[in-house]
Design a protein that fits this description.
Elements: E1 6-9, E2 13-15, H1 21-28, E3 32-35, E4 51-54
Parallel strand pairs: 3-4
Antiparallel strand pairs: 1-2
Length: 59
């Protein structure tokens, strides 16, 4: 299976798009999702058990 996200630091911090949240949580055990999307109203993975933190980037 091809990963569409990658590790930024020692397989503890991962970077990917909204569509990658489910895979990161299931495959890597991600416990916190930091969402940079200003338009988001909830975590991109509806069944997420991870803590969702939104820090929207604005222009």
């Amino acid at each position: 299976m091809e990963k569409k996200y990658h590790a930024l630091h020692d397989n503890k911090i991962f970077m990917g798009g909204a569509a990658d949240v489910e895979a990161m949580e299931k495959n890597e055990g991600v416990e916190v999702v930091v969402d940079l999307r200003a338009e988001a109203t909830e975590c991109a993975y509806a069944d997420s058990k991870a803590k969702w933190v939104q820090i929207p980037l604005r222009r």
